[in-house]
Amino acid sequence: LLTSTHHSRWWVELFTDGTRIYYSDPIGDRWVIKQVSVAGGEPTTVPMPFRSGELLDIAPERGQLLVSDNSGGVGQAGPLWVLPILGGSPRRVGDAVAFAAKWFPGRQRILYARGSDIFTTRNDGTETRKLLTLPAGVVPFMVWSPDGGRVRVHLRDYDHGTATCWEFTPDGANPHPLHLGPSANRAESC
């Protein structure tokens, strides 16, 4: 056992830079970002310039975290921020607002989802453009294929209680649903 969280019903992603593990942890009515050594020990809280935030990705080679400010409410899209791990000032990613986001392989751009719209932007928030719009719903999770040639997203339609997994190329081409069998309503299926 490395550490424990306050999670009882939430799915959470773990990220590592090789020496530390980072994760989001609910504390009361807000979320904080915690870090713990890969060898275990007491977790510490990563400082943020906002009350509540969710960790979305890590750039191990640059020591930066990609975080959504969810001070407006958990489960809502929030402004994207880059938080340096080892000093430096946190910075907003332009006017990007997202529920899910990942750095592109190579880390020069960010892929993010707001509702069912998928966008790309430079790390500083410039040159933002919409790649595609999926059917109605919200994208709470996204993941790159190991070769960086495809993106998979989990699309939840809360109005109808359904979930599907979609796949597309990094430029937004060839979006299509994946048929993953009976577990297709679970986030893990993507």
Structure description:
The protein starts with 14 loop residues before the first strand and ends in a 12-residue tail after the last strand. Strand 7 (78-84) and strand 8 form a beta hairpin. It has a four-stranded antiparallel β-sheet with strand order 1-2-3-4, with no helix packed on it. It has a four-stranded antiparallel β-sheet with strand order 5-6-7-8, with no helix packed on it. It has a four-stranded antiparallel β-sheet with strand order 9-10-11-12, with no helix packed on it. By secondary structure, it is mainly beta. Helix content is 0%, strand content 49%. It is globular. The protein is built from no helices and 16 strands.
Determine the N-to-C terminus distance: 27 Å
Please indicate the percent range of residues in DSSP E strands (runs of 2 or more).
Answer: over 45%
**Topology order in helix (H) and strand (E) letters:** EEEEEEEEEEEEEEEE
Helix/strand/pairing category: mainly beta
**Major beta sheet, specifics?**
4 strands, antiparallel
Residue share in helix: under 10%
- Give the oligomer, counting copies of the same chain as homo and different chains as hetero: single chain
As laid out across the biggest beta sheet, the strand order is 1-2-3-4
